[in-house]
Amino acid sequence: MNQQEGILIIGGGVIGVASAYYLAGQGRPVTLIEKEDICAGSSHGNAGLIANGLAIPMAAPGVLRQGLKWLLDAESPFYIKPRLNLDLMRWLWQFRGACNEKKMRQSIAVLLSLGQASFDLFDDLLDKEKLEFGYERKGRLILFTSEAAFEKAVPDTVLLREYGVDSTLLDADGARQIEPNVQPAVTHGIYAADYGHVIPDRFVHELARVAKERGVNFKTGTAVLGFETTGRQISSLITSQGVFTPNQVVLAAGAWSPVIARHLKLRIPIQPAKGYSVTYKRPLASPRLPLSLSERKIAVTPMGDRLRFTSTLELAGYDPSINQWRLAAIRRAIHEYLPGMEELEQTAVWSGYRPATPDDLPIIGRSEAFENLILATGHGTLGMTQGLITGKLVSQIIGEERPSIDLAPLRVERFH
Ligand SMILES: Cc1cc2nc3c(=O)[nH]c(=O)nc-3n(C[C@H](O)[C@H](O)[C@H](O)COP(=O)(O)OP(=O)(O)OC[C@H]3O[C@@H](n4cnc5c(N)ncnc54)[C@H](O)[C@@H]3O)c2cc1C
């Protein structure tokens, strides 16, 4: 097969599909290749939060000390598998470099601009298209069962207020007014208004459906195996289904992007940061809005007739196994915060890799090494949130339009 010209997108997750949607809207010829099925990766079973209010990066002052404590706890939500891996060492070194006040504040501003732009694009999308993916904007309630954890969270809330993030500190009664169905153990809450939520796989499939109607050629079961280059141009892609010779290539392969980039001798600092979700049939006692079970670092999202719990961040390489200790910790924690969860009917257990960069900002922009390569990857914990704006930015880069967000802090060269 020799597919000539047009734009070729690698990866059928939220980032690749949103890019395909906006590029097709400009009337451009687009082929998307995906090694498995559409939405088979991290975009499938995540918490579905459109989390504009979640703007403090993981790389923040003090996080290294906390991280070391968690490392020693088998049930903790954060884990680094000890191993001698040069990429991981380099990533951790760059992460350490980003853990300071100045860098954190710069990242907050960028994350908020990406989040706000995505909120606007959700409104625009739902205005223009007939799509149903469970989008709701109810905010999110963070629950605490200890005064100490609440007090620890207050400074972050105060910091985000400086940037205009809307949140309310609550006592136990205040938290119950927003979500009555919580355990007596809940002592405090923080209500964060700047959150929406979606059913993530339905969102990606719906967007793919419209993109397909606009002419995008989806080639699933097609894995990139290598590239041929001429000078600073990618001349062809070698895949499991033949050779493609596109004009432009968009690398949107999530946590696998560095593996693919290595064929081009490019180094992209992304680590697969594994997380888990457990999904149940929605019980009668289900919360009405998304929750965070703060001490246990668990996100709870009502999704239509399902209720999903997500947690953990493991830097353990590409290892899809599910750690039963951590899963058991999620199941136990549910009862600490929520009553009426005794007879939950489980429908799915899932793990996925967040494509994590050391500074928690995505990598979006044209590569300096190859003129016809656009990078759209590294969205870490916020890929669902930033999917639409990333797709829009990719279409603006290719269309040589002025990008709606400053791309300078998002360039891969910031790590070099
Ligand atoms: C537990 C958990 C909870 C999360 N919750 C949220 C949340 O609430 N809100 C939020 O904003 N984000 C959340 N995220 C993060 C979000 O899921 C990711 O940032 C996002 O899905 C990344 O999208 P992507 O398109 O870059 O990658 P993916 O969805 O992983 O897509 C990449 C695709 O590339 C394909 N691919 C890989 N290699 C090749 C190859 N060689 N050839 C062709 N195709 C290839 C893969 O099969 C895959 O389908 C969560 C993640 C996890 C794990």
Protein described:
The chain has 416 residues and is of the alpha/beta class. Helix content is 32%, strand content 26%. It has ten helices and 21 strands. Strands 5, 6, 7, 8, 15, 16, 17, 18 and 19 form a nine-stranded mixed β-sheet that branches. Helix 4 packs across helix 10 (383-398). The longest helix has 28 residues, at 101-128. The two termini are 37 Å apart.
Q: Which stretches are poorly predicted, pLDDT < 50 over at least 5 residues?
A: none
> What is the assembly state of the chains in this entry?
single chain
Q: Helix coverage percent of residues?
A: 25-40%
Tell me what portion of residues adopts beta-strand conformation: 25-35%
Terminal CA distance: 37 Å
The number of helical segments is 10
Principal-axis shape equals globular
Rounded mean pLDDT is 94
Number of strands: 21
List the ligand species: flavin-adenine dinucleotide
SSE-based structural type: alpha/beta
Based on CA atoms alone, the radius of gyration comes out at: 21 Å
Sketch the major β-sheet.
9 strands, mixed
